[in-house]
Amino acid sequence: QVQLVESGGGLVQAGGSLRLSCAASGRTFINNAMGWFRQAPGNEREFVAAINWSGGRTYYADSVKGRFTISRDNAKNTVYLQMNSLKVEDTAVYYCAADLQRTLVASRRPDEYAYWGQGTRVTVSS
Predict the structure, then answer these.
(1) C-alpha distances in angstroms, 16 versus 64, 78, 109, 121?
(2) Which of 60, 86, 83, 68 is nearest to 8 (CA)?
(3) pLDDT tens-digit map of 13-44
């Protein structure tokens, strides 16, 4: 059974940092682009960051650029999202996802990702 399991969420004050992890099991995703998305209450799921298979290409939403960093460790079949200078508006459930179609580049569209984790909640207080 293929699973993506996120961890690392929690409650943090504005200006603080969190590091999210997404561990894959059941199959390897080392040849696949991976992404992070988030969904706040009442909002649609939105793109946060994505990374190609090697980590050589990364993509960010304008709202997180310069604050968040996506990375991956293919030996561990794990993707990370380092979140710094967190803002109240970053509060959401964060999901990682695997794209089975893309390797060299990564998509910003959630409908192009085939596998999803269950999400980890991030709450940023003022």
Answers:
(1) 14, 23, 28, 15
(2) 83
(3) 999 999 999 999 988 898 999 999 999 999 99
